Amino acid sequence: QVQLVESGAGVVGPSQTLTLTCSVSGGAFIFVSGYWGWLRQPPGEDVEWIGGIRFDGDTDYSPPLRSRTTISRDTTKNQIFLHLRSVTPQDTGVYYCARAPGLRTVPDGYDVWGQGIQVTVSS
């Protein structure tokens, strides 16, 4: 059974880069199929899709965040990475990595989720 665990800094300064790692376990050849997304939930708001990476390595990004976001992976370590540049307090929230059968830009399409990690943008 696939399991996802997010890790990274819990506090990031304004204008800095937020970097998170999603460690994937629970089977061989994990990235041969499926879609691996990053999502977040700001305080008091709904979960929103940030972007994701396909099984072939191609990436997709939410248009409002595209210019600040890079998603990548290390298949040798079964890890997926999120880099969000030039953060502001509006980037504060709980960040999740999740898996879906294919490209999904809404939270409902993801069937396996990590536990989430709180990230606060503050000086």
Task: Kindly describe this structure.
There is one protein chain. By secondary structure, the chain is an all-beta fold. Helix content is 0%, strand content 49%. The protein contains no helices and 11 strands. The mean pLDDT is 94.
What is the β-strand count? 11
Shape: globular
Work out the helix count: 0
Percent strand: over 45%
Distance between the termini: 39 Å
Largest sheet: 7 strands, mixed
Reading the helices and strands in chain order gives: EEEEEEEEEEE
Detail the poorly predicted runs: none
Helical content (DSSP H or I, runs of 4+): under 10%
What class do helices, strands and sheet pairing give? mainly beta
Average pLDDT, all residues: 94
Which helices and strands occur, and which strands form pairs?
Layout: E1 3-8, E2 11-12, E3 18-25, E4 35-41, E5 48-54, E6 59-61, E7 69-74, E8 79-84, E9 93-100, E10 112-113, E11 117-121
Parallel strand pairs: 2-11
Antiparallel strand pairs: 1-3, 3-8, 4-5, 4-9, 5-6, 7-8, 9-10, 9-11
Identify the notable features of this structure and list them briefly.
123 residues; seven-stranded mixed beta sheet; mainly beta; 11 strands; single chain; 49% strand; globular; four-stranded antiparallel beta sheet
